[in-house]
Amino acid sequence: MNKYSYFYKMIEKTEYRLNQIFTATLNLTGKVGIAGLKMSDIAKEAKIASGTLYIYFKSKEELLNALYYKLQRESAPAIVDTISHLPINIQLYKMWHIALKRLVEDNMRIIFLEQFLISPLISDTNKNLDIKFKNYLKELLDKGKKENLIKDIDSQMLISLIIGFIRTYSTYLVNEKESILTDDLVDKSFALCWQAIEK
Questions:
Q1: Phi/psi of residue 198, each to 5°?
Q2: Is 26's pLDDT higher than 80?
Q3: Which one of 124, 131, 141, 171 is most buried, counting C-beta atoms within 10 A?
Q4: Does residue 10 surpass a pLDDT of 80?
Q5: How many CA atoms lie within 13 A of 179 on its CB side?
Q6: pLDDT band at residue 23 under the 50/70/90 scheme
Q7: How far is residue 192 from each of residues 45, 87, 132, measured CA to CA in Å?
Q8: pLDDT greater than 90 at residue 74
Q9: In three state form, how does the secondary structure of the chain look?
Q10: Model's pTM, two decimal places?
Q11: What is the pLDDT of residue 77?
Q12: C-alpha torsion angle, residues 117, 123, 128, 131 (rounded to 10)
């Protein structure tokens, strides 16, 4: 085995372990909440030794912040830079599509994200990620109001409506065993949301 194949095997093993740990953390958050999480329980849920868990994360705080960052990098905030040149409705649609897809794939994300955002364990870096994304949404909606595309309603209220709709709808899809997220459902649900906010 050459040194490069060994290196790539180590990377694959690390990614596999991290996914095990993150999945276990999400599952346990759904059962016991952020406050009830213990490193030993996470290790048990991930089917690894506690010592192995501490190789990857020194503390619960470090683990939760890493998970939050990972979830944000996989969802709508991750695409902002690549869509900011597009028309407002297209930007909102693209964020809607990726957020709905991620939430339906793993609805435990909602529970984790909602609890972690108000947790004292959240790092300043992750707080700033959330603030940056909400500011982006606010600026986008404000721009839409100036262009006479979006209702002249408080932007925070509009953001609450958008986020509330997507969370509720994704939870519905997850709980309905025969519901599968299709492009048609993404399009129809976004159209309803857009109708609610457009002028």
A1: -75, 150
A2: yes
A3: 141
A4: no
A5: 15
A6: very high
A7: 39, 18, 26
A8: no
A9: CCHHHHHHHHHHHHHHHHHHHHHHHHHHHHHHCCCCCCHHHHHHHHCCCHHHHHHHCCCHHHHHHHHHHHHHHCCHHHHHHHHCCCCHHHHHHHHHHHHHHHHHHCCHHHHHHHHHHCCCCCCHHHHHHHHHHHHHHHHHHHHHHHCCCECCCCHHHHHHHHHHHHHHHHHHHHHCCCCCCCHHHHHHHHHHHHHHHEC
A10: 0.82
A11: 80
A12: 10
- Which amino acid belongs to residue 183? D
Other C-beta atoms within 10 Å of 153: how many?
13
Structure tokens at 55: 């190789």
Tokens 């899809």 sit at which residue? 173
pLDDT in tens, 85-122: 999 999 999 999 999 998 888 878 888 988 999 999 99
Q: How far is CA 101 from CA 17, 36, 104, 109, 184, in A?
A: 24, 28, 5, 11, 13
Instruction: State both tokens at 111.
Output: 């529970």
Q: pLDDT at residue 41 above 70? A: yes
Question: pLDDT over 70 for what percent of the chain?
Answer: 93
